[in-house]
Please model this.
Amino acid sequence: IDAASSGDNTIVAATAGKKIRVLHFHITMTGTAVTIRWESAAGGTALTGQMTPLQGTSINSGFSPVGHFETVAGELLNLELGGAQSVDGFLTYQLV
Model:
């Protein structure tokens, strides 16, 4: 994960007919604090509530074999940022 644009940031591209199921993610706010939220599609359905980690802090979801959330079939996984700040990390996902 390497997002820094205010608004929509594509994290995983869409695959026709498939959902993106997030099993684990770890993100670190390297810029100043802004709200972040996972979404199905750019500007799409919210998959999480808004989170506001402080600069230098991380959010680690832990691993869930059944997944924490998933997109609508055929939609990309988006990370929406409330401002142009750097958010970095990684995630584990599967297509279902």
Remarks:
- The two ends are 21 Å apart (CA to CA).
- DSSP finds no helices and nine strands in the chain.
- The chain has a mean pLDDT of 95.
- The CA atoms of residues 20 and 95 lie 5 Å apart.
